[in-house]
Amino acid sequence: MRLGILGTLQLAATLIFAAPVGIFGLTRLTEGDIALGAGAVAIAVAMVVLPQYLTTPGDIPVKIGERVFGAVVKAPDDDEDTP
Q: Within a domain: residue 80?
């Protein structure tokens, strides 16, 4: 899965919030509280994975912007000989 600049920044912001939840879950698991620990780890994983696969209303302008920017700016072809 390729992420653009905005996708990378969104993933970093999500990890800032998901990491403490995951660490809390792992701590609870090591202390023997299986239900709370597993639930916290599952929530942390869902916080990171779900936004990558679900389209939210906030993602629609970003996707439109990426398509417009991609249509306007063309990547140079590698086959062309440049002097």
A: no
CA distances (Å), origin 69, targets 10, 37, 66, 72: 19, 43, 5, 5
The pLDDT tens digits of the residues spanning 2-27 come to: 777 878 888 899 999 999 999 999 99
Contact 25, 38 (CB under 8 A): yes
The boundaries of the domain holding residue 61 are: 5-72
In a domain, 79, yes or no: no
Residue (of 29, 54, 52, 53) closest to 39 by Cα position: 29
What is the domain count for the chain? 1
